[in-house]
Structures are given as structure tokens and as C-alpha cells.
Amino acid sequence: MPELKLGQLVLSCAGRDKGRFMLVIKILDSQYVYVADGVLRRVENPKKKKIKHLKILNKRAGFIAEKIENNKKIYNEEIRRALEELVDLNLKDEESSQV
Q1: CA nearest to 37, candidates 94, 89, 92, 81
Q2: CA nearest 61: which of 42, 80, 39, 33?
Q3: Contact 73/54 with Cβ under 8 angstroms?
């Protein structure tokens, strides 16, 4: 399993948001993180999620992580843009590995 970091791309595997891609915006402890997708789960009201209910993907939004680490404000639009880029990359990687 990849190590969980700020800005990490994850896929929700349980709950109402099952099947949604999100980014980790805060790591609380070894069991919980806060995630946001910029649409349903906005930065102002992130979802507290158990790590065991997430599939950790091997992609990361570096500029989001940098902004969080430097205590700069992140915007929902930035989260959405990062998710679009990372999910497109992730789908292309899966397609090429299946061929």
C-alpha cells in the first residue's frame, strides 16, 4: 500500500461518497484523514474519513500539498482541477496496464 501523504489521490470505497475520487487535505492520525473533492465535499467542510475506507492511489497533487504545508489557502477550484488531471492520468495508466 502506498504511503498516505497530503495531496494524495484516494478513491472512497464506503459510505455515500463511494466511488468518488478525493484528495487528502489533512492527516489526523493513523486511522483518520480529511478529504475533499471541491464539489460535494468542499475545502470549508471536508469529510472525515477512515483510512481503511479509502483506496490509496499512487498519484499526488504536489502543488496542493505545498500550499497546505505552507499554510496557504486552498480553493475548491484548485482541488477540482487537480482531480481532473490526476484522474485522467490514472485512467490512462490503468488502460495501458490492461493491454
Answers
A1: 81
A2: 80
A3: no
* DSSP assignment string, 50-70: EGGGEEEEEEE-HHHHHHHHT
pTM value?
0.85
Selection from 40, 35, 30, 39 nearest residue 68 by Cα: 35
CA–CA separation, 12 and 88 (whole Å): 17
Amino acid sitting at position 2: P
Tens of pLDDT along 56-88? 999 999 999 999 999 999 999 999 999 999 988
C-alpha cell at 82: 487537480
DSSP letter for 91, please: H
Question: Hunting for cell 485512467 — which residue is that?
Answer: 91
